Amino acid sequence: MSVTILDNDNFEKEVLQETKPVLVDFFATWCGPCKMMAPVIDEIAAESDAYKVCKLDVDEADEIAEKYGIMSIPTIMVFKNGEAAKSFVGVTDKQALTDALK
């Protein structure tokens, strides 16, 4: 599956109303560690249809980033049943992210 790009208009539908687990990468285009995580996020998205993988540019959707208390990027959150279930800040191990989706 490919990575879904989120914005203020589709966040609720793509994340909060989704029935399967959703990994959301809160990032910015200028962020070096975010660029380091990008290939990992793409790999996770390609591995399974059991979950959804999304990216949200905090500069483009600052209201959502503020709502979820995103203070540092990259922050990667796993949502289950419309609720934030787990959060990772900074460069994170791929295995930790995929384990959180189970």
Structure description:
- The protein is built from 4 helices and 5 strands, in the order βαβαβαββα.
- It is of the alpha/beta class and 102 residues long.
- The protein has one domain: Glutaredoxin.
- A 5-stranded mixed sheet has the order 1-3-2-4-5.
- The longest helix is centred in the middle third of the chain and has 16 residues, at 32-47.
Can you lay out the helices and strands and say which pair or pack?
Blueprint: E1 4-6, H1 11-16, E2 22-27, H2 32-47, E3 52-57, H3 62-67, E4 75-80, E5 83-89, H4 94-100
Parallel strand pairs: 1-3, 2-3
Antiparallel strand pairs: 2-4, 4-5
Shape: globular
Q: Got a strand count? A: 5
Biggest sheet overview: 5 strands, mixed
CATH fold assignment? Glutaredoxin
Spatial separation of the terminal alpha carbons: 17 Å
Strand order of the largest sheet: 1-3-2-4-5
What is the mean pLDDT? 96
- In terms of DSSP E residues, the strand content is 25-35%
Q: What are the segments in which pLDDT stays under 50 over at least 5 consecutive residues?
A: none
**So what's the CATH class?**
Alpha Beta
Structural class: alpha/beta
Count of domains? 1
Per DSSP, the total helix count is 4
Order of helices and strands: EHEHEHEEH
CATH architecture grouping: 3-Layer(aba) Sandwich
